[in-house]
Amino acid sequence: MFCNNLAPIRIVHLLILSLCVFAGAISARAANSARWDVYAQEPDDWFHTDKGRETIENVLSWQDVEGGWPKNQDNTAKPFTGEKKEIRGSFDNGATTPEIRFLARAYRITKDERCLEAVNKGLDLLLKAQYPTGGWPQSYPPDRQYHRFITFNDDAMTRVMRLLGDAASSPDFAFLDAKRRAAINQSFQRGIQCILKCQIVVNGRLTVWCAQHDEIDLSPQHGRTYELPSLSGYESIGVLELLMSLDNPSPEVIRAVKSGAEWYAASKVTGIRQIRVDGDRKIIPDKDAPPLWARFYDIETNRPIFSGRDGVKKFSMDKIEPERRNNYRWYVDNGRFVAESYAKWQEKWLKPASAGIEDEIKSEIKKADAIVAADGSGRFKTVEQAVDAAPAGLEKLYIIFVKKGIYKGHLAIPADKRFIHLVGEDWDTTVLTGDLNANIPGADGLPIGTFKTASTDVAADDFCAENIAFENSFGTGSQALAARILGDRGAFKRCRFLGWQDTLLINAGRHYFDECYIAGHVDFIFGAGTAFFEKCRIHCRDKGYVTAASTPQDQPFGFVFSNCAITGEPGTKKSYLGRPWRPFADVAFLNTEMADTILPAGWNNWRDPAREKTARYAEYKSTGLGANPKTRVSWSKQLTDDQAKTYTPQNVLGGKDGWKPQ
What we know:
48% of the residues are buried. Strands 14, 15, 17, 18, 20, 21, 23, 24, 26, 28, 30, 31 and 33 form a 13-stranded parallel beta sheet that branches. Strands 12-13-16-19-22-25-27-29-32-34-35 form an eleven-stranded parallel beta sheet, sandwiched between helices. It starts with 16 loop residues before the first helix and ends in a 9-residue tail after the last helix. With 662 residues, it is α/β, with parallel strands linked by helices. Helix 4 packs antiparallel against helix 5 and helix 9 (251-267) packs antiparallel against helix 11 (336-349).
């Protein structure tokens, strides 16, 4: 047993078959569109031929006043000769993005400035059309019909994002100015956050996406009358493929992909075959038929749903009128590619759980005093209910096993509930989350402040957590705690702490973190407590400060990081190892691999030179591109071998009671 406390732009392009199949399906829906795949295979010399120059002229002529191109027609076949204001551009059905790619290549080869101007205008349209919530409508400016919704339908938004991902980082778009590329990268990152927030939660479990989502509150929305708010078994494929193409996926992306892949595995429809009889589409039983996926699933029951032009939900395809039954794709087989892509993605990005870890979790389940499951399959539906039911004044561990799920709300472990031990089923998809931030007004109308934002508050001694994630999903712009630790002798193994500013507050006591992942960008590990971080990954999401210790003057140790790794988000500015929240801040990094996300100076004085005389900052044998002992500020220290020997878990955390956290 682990606890015995009795005393993360760029996109890599995966050559995945499903993308090809999905793109082919989209092309079929827009039969009158240009064959962009053919033009992509033309040699460079073709752009200098009469046909090449004619095609370029035609494409340029169809760009509308906003910067887009119309859908469902071949914009390469002939020139547009009318008034530009008559053209209605779109992002739907493969419009606008392939024209931008085509003209970008044309510019690289011909250096025709008109092509560059058109590319810039098209990309600027995509930036302008993006909603504050991060998504895109079908066209810009949006109307007040369903076209205004954030549109995953027919791969509209994911196609826009794949283009932006390339424009931000691919050599094919190296001709773009740096300012525009930076704006495009920011737009892409906002789009990813939008996708993550749109993923539908049912009974505490992440599932997939609707074909359309509200542009303000991100709720699932209808399309045409027969396209009801639902879980989309079709459009979600493109969303998952986009997420699986991201390099160094964040914990949130990993959670989304794992949950989406699990939904596809659980939602396949077997034992039926789709046929046509006298032109009418029928479903017949066939135990040997390959699996299918419904286009739409009921959000509450996960049953396939169908609708005619009357907009009435039905649970059988034969219940809708022949016109809709035979002229719409109600079942698809593309879902089979999700499993293939997911297997490759798992192999590349997920460290498989060792048999020892799996056995340990199985053992914890058998010993659990309480089981929590958001879907109602456990004794409790929330962790808070399980903690409330735990006896006060315990002298031995009380194990609460938490099944996969998103558990949103404030969780408090009160001081009289010692020895609570939370064990999660999976640290990617077992998440205790909230979204409070310091600027939210309280009952008195004033901002609640930093300390009241924690998704999880631990006031009890001898608390343990294992294989679980603590999160504050608010994002940037304010202090927002994932966890606040106030007790003593806390132990955390294989836990994730996810936030941005002030992710993890350790403000009292002694605490041990083993193989944990902690992400943020400003002061995201802070407080007055003593903590030993062993083999942890510290991830900088943007420029800022890793630590902000407020160690008391008479406290020998603050935060100690041993054999850890510091990583950073690609394309972001660099960070400091720390700044002193209080004058005697104490932080040491030993044998830590530091990516180049760490600034050469290493440490910051928080605009107070006097703290340079009192802050206790040290390193020992840092490695990596961010390890620069010769350029560190003069008031930090490089430890000797003898000095480093004192930084052991037992010496740092033992205290008067001789606590042994390992």
